Amino acid sequence: MNKVRILIVEDEENIRRFVHLVLAAEGYEVFEAVSLQRGLIEAGTRRPDILVLDLGLPDGDGINLIRDLRTWSTIPVIVLSARSYEADKIAALDAGADDYLIKPFGTGELLARVRAQLRRQHIKASTGESLIIFGNISIDLVKRSVNRAGEVLHLTPIEYRLLTHLISYPECVLTHKQLLHAVWGPGHIEDTHYVRVHMANLRKKIEIDPSRPRHLLTEAGIGYRFCRLEKYQSNGGTTSAISVANCSDFPGG
Amino acid sequence: MSDDQRPDPDKLLQQVQQEEARKKRGRLKIFFGASAGVGKTYAMLSAAHEAHARGIPLVIGLVETHGRAETEMLVADLPLLPLREVSYRERVLKEFDLDAALAFSATHAGGSEPPLILLDELAHSNVPGSRHPKRWQDVEELLAAGIDVWSTMNVQHLESLNDIIGGITGIRVWETVPDTLFDTAEEVLVVDLPPDELLARLAAGKIYIPAQAKRAAVNFFRKGNLIALRELTLRRTADRVDTQMQDWRRMATGGATGQPVWATRDALLACVGPGAGGEVVVRSAARLAMQTGLSWHTVFVDASSQQRVDEAARQQALRALQLAQDLGATTATPTGAEVAEVLVRYAREHNLSRLVLGRRPGRRHWWGMSLTEQMAELTPDMDVLQIPLPKIKQEGRKTRWRAPGSSSTRWQGYAAAVAVCILITLATTPLHSVLELTNIVMLFLLAVVGVALRYGRGPATLVALLGVAIFDFFFVPPHLSFNVSDVQYLITFAVMLVVALVIGQLTASLQAQANTASERERRVRGLYQMSRELSAVLLVEQVAEIGAHFMMAEFAAKSALLVPDDHNQLQIQPGASAGVDMAVAQWCFDKGEVAGRGTHTLPSCACLMLPLKAPMRLRGVLAVQPAQLVQTSLFTPEQRQLLDTCASLLAISLERIHYIQVAQASTVQMESERLRNSLLSAISHDLRTPLASLVGLADTLSLVSPPLSVPQTEIANAIRQSAQRMITLVNNLLDMARLESGKLRLHCEWQPLEEVVGSALTACDPILGVRPIEVRLAEDLPLLHLDAVLFERVLINLLENAVKYTPADKAVHIGAEVLGDNVCITVDDEGPGLPAGREEAVFGKFERGSRETATPGVGLGLAICRAIVQAHGGRIQGENRMEQGRVTGTRLIITLPRGTPPLDDGSQLHATLPDKDDV
């Protein structure tokens, strides 16, 4: 199998350098671009498997790059963004990004996200899977039934649709808007409380401790992420290195 | 048709607005009687006793007992407002104290019952120097202040009946009350006494009559008079009741009666001519308007510039106009030479289909048609009503002559006329043999034209007459005799006279019209110039200057511009030349009504105060002090119009300046906002980027080969941790700066609290470690309107705080419950608690529990929490959890308003959507 190719589009030299170092150390083939234009060219010529993209580029908004890219490619895009710019992140996700990282981020965090996206790619490649298992939950997509520790869970149609929509994009951040569009249709993308109310109900049925969810995670102000792994270390550190090591042992898909 | 049955929404709205205005206003109750002595005051006081017993806060403003014992007894038990002492012409008079009454009501305002004031004799005239000349104006102010008033009044004091009663009884009273006040009164209670009983009471000496008026009063109290007065009283009241009945019917049918009471919105036009009689027309029109319920206009066609009109007669007409205004008419003074045409034009413009004119017996226009006939000719489709006027006395007519300018120029004119005639005679006598007689005639005609142009009609007529006489005497043979040799000359004289007179008249009236036109043009130019100057100004001082300049140029009047400061207190602008009574100006500003000289309010003031009404609000007051030489206290209607125009121009300029200032301020604010935002984002970018690199690069050290030694790994970790701490600090500082700027925009959405708590706990996972966390959220928690990101930050900060100050194995409890209209969220720890007495202080900036400690942080966390919670409309406070007198930990409580969450959660909606397979 070929090496996984990753393209980094980032104008800040030091960040680019350490992201490169980390990913290269992990055995990926890494390409760099410093501007939006270069990024598009590199994406076209190098055909990367994953794109790591900074939103604030000197020659334009990274969101435009995502839009361009999405016209001809479905590769995972991980966005790097500063904190407190929720609107930018939502715009990037709505434009087609799959995940985001808030600067500053640790190496462990970065690697975890990259692996998660790669894993997702792998799942995608082997479609046809009709039984999805995470934690003590198993979902049979053919029978449309959900079991928890062997017992049948009764989900409302909305809950079932929310759940199946989320698990069909594992490790991806789905915005409220995207979920509303998928479940309620285009007329209700402003009624975010719809999603929230049903999400809360869904958590009560799926999660062991709904106030400390493990699979249906909230991205405050943005949306939700379905995490198939037991634990997601969001704020890296020395501890995260360990959890990342654990993660990498987990068989993907 | 069904359309006709539907209530007119505009009318309904108007009705509602009127209702509301009425609710705010005080209610007036009038005890109405036919004459003195029927027992109005007694009835009022008896009713007051009952009201007093019911607990209505009332006070007697002023009651005249006239020494009657029974009445005095009634007064004794009721609270009395002390009277104001006014010194007038070296005597001290006692007068009703309006300010004390307003103060009394202010202390009783807001109670269940509005305060009530009793005021006897509604028609009374106040002592000169009082705020209002008439008591009924005091009453108006009391009503406007929301105070109920009870008062008494005799029928003869009603304005519209004044002249009729004067005619019946032969005694004219000068103290009158406008009918509008009577008609808008909430209640009118007739106090009735049959004439015989009244006379009996008079005979028994129960009716007090001042000694000096005794004889007149005895004449007044004749049985015939009393019967007539009683009838008028009852009939007038019946009219009022009838109107009420009609109103009630309109209300009862919701304003949608099948038969509209008035098919068309036509109205009356009362025409006032110069001289006496105008008031008769006005009163008749007022009565007519009241009976038919029509609105009415009153006009005085001011032809003074074209025709000779006596100034006194003109003033009389203006007074009649003023009276009409008081009686509720819309007034105007159009100008023009042809009275009939002007009237018809006015009537057509305002859609007035009934004209009310005065008819004076035997008075005719010089060309033979009376005004009424002309009107009938011009307007075959209008009703013309004629009101008979009393015949003008002869001595009144003598002074009807008016020439433009003062009397000295008038005599100059006649002197000049004589002089011109003598001059022509002297000049032509030597040339008598050379000049044809026709040319001499021409010279005289030329003189007529010249004099008419220069001095007007009168002198021109004199020249014409003198000219014919001189021509006959000196030039027509036989000379130096009025005899005429040839009869043909008689024709010459006749033609000469007629031609001279006509030329003189035409020239003079042309000249007068030209004068009027140029006067008007000058005025308009003045206004234009002022508005042009005003359009360029940027400062209030400049407006004041331009206004003062205009006043001086146009009216030769001193003026002052007063503009309110931030506390709505008027301040005189520089450049003011008039001496301003600040109290009057402030009154004018507060009430938004004209005051001072020539008005109903404080007419003794030297200045006329005009409120400057701009579209949005009052912008100030213009005080105008007419020059001392101008003795007429009233401005003429044109002058008032000009003044009003000028005032509104000034007001608009002031408003414009105000908005310029507002715009400038907001531009500056926006600019500084923009600057702050760009500075903040620049700082946040420039600080975070290197820190992000630092964290990342420190991490990367562990990945390089060959692997680092153990001490090197430790150093790398230390670098990373320090950088991480630095990032937290920078984040906090930037958040605080953003919150401090006061322009934080919340992105609130309805959401379950559980979700925010969950995401905060997930975010805090690394620092919480194995620490036990207990989450207890009440089952019935409603959705809360929160900014998820910011509120997550609050919870993270509180959790971080708990972690920072408590040992690693101590539990943290998060709870939430509904308390009334609020939701109460608590975060408890099991640490040492807050330092006693500093429970509030920990929320300050750069505050920490204890000053000297190794615990990292700058103490911004809780300050940020407080700012965010307050932005959500809630509060946050801290306390120590006590158990058996021992502090067992800290409790931080967030109270948020519950709001009204949306009921719809999309479940219903989804059911209707077609089911589609997403997976």
TrEMBL record, chain A:
PANTHER family: KDP OPERON TRANSCRIPTIONAL REGULATORY PROTEIN KDPE, REGULATOR OF RPOS. One of its GO terms (biological process) is positive regulation of DNA-templated transcription. This is Two-component system, OmpR family, KDP operon response regulator KdpE. SMART domains: REC (SM00448), Trans_reg_C (SM00862). One of its GO terms (molecular function) is phosphorelay response regulator activity. Pfam families: Response_reg, Trans_reg_C. InterPro entries: CheY-like_superfamily, OmpR/PhoB-type_DNA-bd, Sig_transdc_resp-reg_receiver, WalR-like, WH-like_DNA-bd_sf. CDD domains: REC_OmpR_KdpE-like, trans_reg_C. Residues 5-118 form the Response regulatory domain. One of its GO terms (cellular component) is cytosol. Residues 129-228 bind DNA. Residues 129-228 form the OmpR/PhoB-type domain. Its main location: cytoplasm. Transmembrane segments: none annotated. It is found in: Cytoplasm. Keywords: Cytoplasm, DNA-binding, Phosphoprotein, Transcription, Transcription regulation, Two-component regulatory system. The modification 4-aspartylphosphate is found at D54. The keyword Plastid does not apply.
TrEMBL record, chain B:
Keywords: ATP-binding, Kinase, Membrane, Nucleotide-binding, Phosphoprotein, Transferase, Transmembrane, Transmembrane helix, Two-component regulatory system. It is found in: Membrane. Residues 897-919 are annotated as: Disordered. This is histidine kinase. It holds the Pfam family GAF_3. Coiled coil: none annotated. The lineage of its organism: Bacteria, Pseudomonadati, Pseudomonadota, Betaproteobacteria, Nitrosomonadales. Its EC number is 2.7.13.3. InterPro entries: GAF, GAF-like_dom_sf, HATPase_C_sf, HATPase_dom, His_kinase_dom, HisK_dim/P_dom, HisK_dim/P_sf, Histidine_kinase_KdpD. It is a multi-pass membrane protein. Member of the two-component regulatory system KdpD/KdpE involved in the regulation of the kdp operon. KdpD may function as a membrane-associated protein kinase that phosphorylates KdpE in response to environmental signals. Residues 682-900 form the Histidine kinase domain. One of its GO terms (cellular component) is plasma membrane. It catalyses: ATP + protein L-histidine = ADP + protein N-phospho-L-histidine. The chain crosses the membrane at residues 411-431, 437-455, 462-481, 487-510. GO terms for molecular function: ATP binding; identical protein binding; phosphorelay sensor kinase activity. Gene3D superfamilies: 1.10.287.130, 3.30.450.40, Backbone structure of the membrane domain of e. Coli histidine kinase receptor kdpd, Histidine kinase-like ATPase, C-terminal domain, HUPs, P-loop containing nucleotide triphosphate hydrolases.
